[in-house]
Design brief:
Blueprint (H helix, E strand, L loop, with lengths): L6 E4 L14 H12 L3 E4 L5 H7 L8 E4 L4 E4 L5 E4 L4 H12 L3 E7 L2 E4 L1 H6 L7 H10 L1 E2 L3 H6 L5 E8 L2 H12 L13 E4 L6 H12 L6 E5 L5 H6 L2 E4 L5 H5 L3 E2 L7 H10 L1
Parallel strand pairs: 1-2, 1-11, 7-8, 11-12, 12-13
Antiparallel strand pairs: 3-4, 4-5, 6-7, 6-9, 9-10
């Protein structure tokens, strides 16, 4: 057992989840066993807290959740929000107006929830994503009848904006338009998506903040991931594991490479540190 590690940050899509958005029994048991042995288990994902809690409803050993690409940290025991990285609302409104010109799915991450509108419910099905992924998002997303009205007030705090475009040729144009706004740096994780948070905030920034809260040192953190929004956490974690299905950029900076998400890569990585 690796006693030098105290926290395990695990990405969801392409990592903990198989391609059909399910989790194998072996992987779930490995994660739960690590939690029982005292490791702090931290799902670290671009998804909302509400959706992650829904997807991981069978898990009992989750210490904390990091969601919205690091924009919100939630206690797994009490569900209290421990930290929120807030976007400038003028930017959020402008990003929505830019995206509204296209055939796009717009998802607004506010607190622990994600919002979508009726147009988004229809567009997401045309974006080439797995049906299982779409079904999971739709199961927990809150529906707004009017995004402009929702974003007009001062009652809402937004941590992330997620956009899916149905036409690939429009994505690069929209990214360039968003990139002109002050203080935002859009990224893309899958071919037709755009994700925006405040500044260059990443999953790693939230992991580091949580680690400081609970007294865990950088070298005591293990991170597992596969994609561009996992890059910083794999680069800076004390022990980083790239999935076998990860992009080369991620594999190159990781401490180790495990099997794919289809072949219990997370389970094998965790079993390695437990045994």
């Amino acid at each position: 057992m690796r006693k030098d590690l105290k926290m395990i940050a695990i990405d969801l899509d392409g990592t903990l989840l198989r391609d059909d958005c399910t989790i194998s029994k072996r992987t779930r048991e490995a994660v739960e066993e690590a939690g029982r042995r005292g490791y702090r288990i931290v799902p670290t994902t671009g998804r909302s807290y509400r959706n992650t809690r829904f997807v991981l409803k069978e898990f009992q050993e989750i210490s904390y959740f990091i969601n919205g690409n690091g924009s919100v940290i939630t206690s797994g025991r009490t569900e209290d929000v421990l930290y929120f990285h807030e976007m400038d609302m003028d930017n959020v409104r402008e990003i929505y107006e830019l995206a509204a010109k296209y055939d796009a799915y717009v998802e607004i991450y506010a607190g622990q929830d994600a919002y979508m509108d009726a147009k988004g419910q229809e567009v997401i099905r045309r974006c080439g994503l797995p049906k299982e992924y779409c079904d999971q998002l739709l199961a927990t997303n809150r529906i707004t009848a009017d995004y402009r009205k929702l974003l007009a007030g001062d009652h809402i705090r937004v941590g992330k904006v997620h956009i899916l475009v149905s036409k690939m040729e429009e994505k690069d144009k929209l990214i360039r338009e968003i990139d002109l706004l002050p203080g935002v740096h859009p990224i893309s994780v899958i071919p037709n998506n755009i994700e925006v948070v405040q500044g260059r905030w990443s999953k790693w920034n939230a992991i580091a903040k949580l680690a400081d809260m609970v007294g865990v040192r950088q070298e005591e953190i293990m991170a597992v991931g596969d994609s561009n929004n996992d890059y910083e956490m794999l680069l800076y974690a004390g022990y980083s594991v790239a999935m076998g299905n990860a992009c080369d950029r991620v594999k190159e900076i990781s401490s180790a490479v495990t099997d794919t998400n289809e072949n219990d890569g997370v389970a094998k990585a965790i079993e390695h540190i437990l045994n």
